[in-house]
């Protein structure tokens, strides 16, 4: 990952490939943002004029390259648009910086070192720019095997290597708050990028056992407690949901429990992640056009995994248990059939009417297992329904809960970290659509409001009296379009930062 430093260096003498400055959209013309004073001065205070001449407006995400002023060691100035002048709330401001830093970092792929002269008003701004750089510079090229260069120099196989080094100009390396914000950004971004790697890894290399092994390595590295239930243990324990989904695959399912504990913790959180390493739909097979990206169906488990490790790296005073419900959903002679009945870990029976509604089955068992430990709050994250993508599009996740205040709190925390989300209801009338003539409940109900139906199904497997929220990331988990802001193509790491924020809020005693 890109190496980050807080730097007090002056822009002119800095040896770098580029200096990044911010430009906002003024009333009539672009306005040079705070932090770029020294650069502006070197253009005789005419940087705004130069930018305007070059057609820049300061619109969000806009990039303008110009030669550095005479006397600068760096050859290039890269102006990145910050949009409208700062006005809105702190979270909005931070997100603007995060996006701008991400756009610039991505544009600087192939460069060794860049200096970021963006407005660093406080520690929050430092954290935002750092996250933007680290997340925006991400690239996944494990599977690109372009011929090695003649001199055998290390080179990204994808073409350009991610930006190697970034100095945040105007940062205060001795300021404790700024230093902490930088360290936090590094820990969260590293784990988030690891989640992206997991999502991007194809299912022929990442099956449930492989994912569990990676979790085991991370547990060792970070001193976490881990328990992996394999298919034998799952059978013995009666985890009919996870087993039923995984029984058609030659790669058997796993339930991973990853625990971070702090000796001074007074609150406990449980995170549950949907970990379908590939969702073919099973016997209710998905048609071509709907299965090409289904390696992403373990994005919830990847987010939970990343968040637990990040909480540990940050040393948060809270106990966090992550549950990864891992299975591969495949059709075969041993696969579960539409019409089969599964006996779930909770004891309830489920008639499987559609084997493609598999996420709720693995989550049900993990939610019940997590509930047994009576956490103060329980949150599941899942690429659960296409209906949620239809409702909210590809960048916003839906949040449902059995507690209105908690749902609002989760939506607010998502906003604070720059993740678009929206509260969704759990309408009681949709429950009867899942009535089964054979079993306690069916795994499918009315088609309309399918995302909410799935949420109502999950609610049946949350223990009594437990505060629970469900985050459906089917839209934002995997970016099928071009990169934007600090979000790359492919796995995005959706919900990681919201979960980390929740752990921070719980650690600070502010969880209602
Ligand atoms: N993994 C899918 C949901 C999904 C769709 C994730 C698009 C990401 C992008 C899930 O397992 C699924 O197939 N859901 C079905 C449920 C239906 C059969 C009740 C769906 O949404 O169509
Ligand atoms: Mn499915
Ligand atoms: Zn699925």
Name some characteristics of this structure:
512 residues, alpha/beta, Leucine Aminopeptidase, subunit E, domain 1, Aminopeptidase, seven-stranded mixed β-sheet, 33% helix, elongated, binds ligand BES, binds zinc ion
Task: Characterize the structure shown.
- There is one protein chain.
- The protein has about 500 residues and is an alpha/beta fold.
- The protein folds into 2 domains: about 5-170, Leucine Aminopeptidase, subunit E, domain 1 (3-Layer(aba) Sandwich); about 190-490, Zn peptidases (Aminopeptidase, 3-Layer(aba) Sandwich).
- About 35% of the residues lie in helices and about 20% in strands.
- It is built from 14 helices and 20 strands.
- It has an 8-stranded mixed sheet, sandwiched between helices. Strands 1, 2, 3, 4, 5, 6 and 7 form a 7-stranded mixed sheet that branches.
- Helix 4 (about 125-135) links the parallel strand 6 and strand 7 (about 165-170).
- The longest helix is centred in the middle third of the chain and has 25 residues, at about 175-200.
- The two termini are about 35 Å apart.
- Manganese (II) ion (MN) binds near residues 279, 281, 356 and 358.
């Amino acid at each position: 990952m890109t190496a980050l430093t807080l730097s007090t260096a002056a822009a002119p003498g800095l040896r770098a490939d580029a200096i990044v400055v911010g430009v906002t959209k003024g009333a009539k013309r672009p306005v040079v943002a705070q932090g770029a004073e020294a650069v502006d001065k070197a253009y005789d205070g005419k940087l705004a004029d130069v930018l305007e001449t070059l057609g820049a407006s300061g619109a969000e995400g806009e990039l303008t390259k110009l030669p550095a002023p005479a006397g600068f060691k760096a050859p290039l100035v890269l102006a990145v648009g910050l949009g409208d002048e700062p006005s809105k709330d702190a979270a909005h401001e931070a997100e603007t910086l995060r996006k701008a830093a991400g756009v610039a970092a991505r544009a600087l792929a192939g460069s060794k070192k860049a200096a970021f002269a963006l407005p660093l008003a406080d520690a929050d701004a430092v954290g935002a720019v750092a996250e933007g750089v680290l997340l925006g510079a991400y690239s996944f090229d494990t599977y690109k095997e372009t011929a090695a260069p003649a001199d055998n120099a290390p080179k990204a196989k994808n073409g350009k290597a991610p930006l190697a080094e970034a100095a945040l100009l105007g940062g205060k390396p001795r300021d404790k708050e700024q230093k902490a914000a930088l360290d936090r950004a590094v820990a969260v971004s590293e784990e988030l990028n690891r989640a992206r790697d997991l999502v991007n890894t194809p299912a022929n290399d990442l099956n449930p056992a492989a994912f569990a092994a990676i979790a085991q390595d991370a547990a060792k590295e970070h001193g976490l407690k881990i328990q992996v239930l394999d298919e034998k243990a799952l059978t013995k324990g009666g985890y009919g949901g996870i087993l039923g989904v995984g029984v058609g695959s030659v790669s058997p399912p796993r339930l991973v429990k990853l625990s971070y504990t702090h000796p001074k913790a007074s609150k406990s959180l449980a995170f549950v992640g949907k970990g379908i390493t590939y969702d073919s739909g099973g016997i209710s097979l998905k048609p071509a056009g709907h299965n090409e990206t289904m390696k992403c169906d373990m994005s919830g488990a990847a987010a939970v995994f990343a968040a637990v490790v990040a909480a540990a790296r940050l040393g948060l005073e809270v106990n966090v248990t992550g549950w990864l419900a891992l299975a591969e959903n495949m059709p075969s002679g041993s696969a579960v059939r539409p019409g089969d009945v599964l006996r779930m870990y909770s004891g309830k029976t489920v008639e499987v009417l559609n084997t493609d509604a598999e996420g709720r089955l693995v989550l049900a068992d993990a939610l019940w297992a997590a509930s047994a430990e009576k956490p103060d709050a329980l949150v599941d994250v899942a690429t659960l329904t296409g209906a949620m993508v239809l409702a909210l599009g590809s960048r916003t996740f839906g949040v449902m809960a059995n507690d209105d205040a908690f749902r609002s709190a989760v939506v607010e925390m998502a906003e604070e970290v720059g993740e678009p989300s929206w509260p969704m209801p759990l309408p009681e009338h949709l429950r009867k659509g899942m009535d089964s003539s054979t079993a306690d409940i069916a795994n499918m109900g009315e088609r309309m409001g399918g995302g909410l139906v799935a949420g109502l199904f999950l609610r049946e497997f949350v223990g009594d009296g437990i505060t629970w929220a469900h985050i459906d990331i089917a839209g934002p988990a995997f970016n099928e379009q071009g990169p934007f802001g600090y979000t790359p193509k492919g796995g995005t790491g959706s919900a990681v930062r919201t979960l980390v924020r929740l752990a921070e809020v719980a650690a600070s005693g502010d969880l209602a």
